[in-house]
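Milestone M4 deliverable, item 7.
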Amino acid sequence: MSKSFYHFVMKYREPKPRNNKELLANRIYDDLDFPKNLKSYNDVSQYIETTDLYSSLASTFDEVWEEYTTNNKN
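Output delivered:
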């Protein structure tokens, strides 16, 4: 995978989110502590699961991660 999950999910950013993917992207963008260079599911997932900001978006994260791995295969 060439780009980090952070860079991949930024394509969903919208000023007024209309769905959970856009909401997730906006929250990640606003989260100054988000690990921007991680590419490992376990590392990013652990951060998502242990940060209250994302508690309602865990299944959305899994969906976007699936897209990330599909779109970033070498």
